[in-house]
Amino acid sequence: MRPVTGIKILGFRLGVISLAVYWITLFLGTHWPAGVEIAPDISDKVKHFGGYFGLATLCCYVTSSPGNDRRATARRFLGVIAFLTVYGCIDELTQAFSPGRTPDVLDVLADIAGTVSAVGVYLVGKHYFAQRAYARLERNQS
After folding, report:
1. Residue 108, Cβ neighbours under 10 Å: how many?
2. Is the overall model pTM greater than 0.90, yes or no?
3. What would the pLDDT profile of 32-62 be if each residue is shown by its tens digit?
C-alpha cells in the first residue's frame, strides 16, 4: 500500500492539496463578516488555537528535512513556527477590513499557542512512530 504522502492528484501531493484547501478555508473563516456564524458556538480563542493547530500540523506534514541533519530539522520546525506567527499577525491585522471584525492580540497569542502545540505534538508523534518502526525492524531481524 502506498503511503499517503505518495498519493498525487493532478500532479500535486495530497498533503499539499489538503494544506491549500484548509488554509483557504481558515482564511475565509477568519475574515467572514461578524455576526454570521458558520462554526460551533465556542470561544473565539479555542477556534484560533484549533485552526492554527491544524494549519501547523499540515505544514509540518508537507515540509521535509534530511532525517539525519538535526540542524536542518530544527530550522524546518522553527521556520514553520516563525512563518505561521507572522502569518497570524497579518491575518489578525487584515481582519480590520472585514465588517464587524477587529484585530485582537489575544487571538494572535492563541494562534501562536496552537502552532507551537502542533509542532510539539508532531515531533513527539514522529519520534514515537520512529521508535516503533525501529523496534519492529529489530524484531524482524532477530
Report:
1. 19
2. no
3. 877 666 666 788 899 999 999 999 999 999 8
Judging by beta carbons within 10 Å of its beta carbon (0-12, 13-18, 19+), is residue 111 exposed, middle or buried?
Answer: buried
Please state the domain count of the chain: 1
Name the residue with cell 505534538: 121
Q: H or E element: which one contains 90?
A: helix 70-94
73 class by beta-carbon count within 10 Å (0-12 exposed, 13-18 middle, 19+ buried): middle
Q: In 3D, which of 78, 34, 85, 33 has the Cα closest to residue 55?
A: 85
Task: Name the residue range of residue 77's domain.
Answer: 4-141
Cell numbers describing residue 103: 484585530
Task: Give whole-number Cα distances, 140 to 78, 82, 128, 131, 136, in Å.
Answer: 36, 41, 19, 14, 6
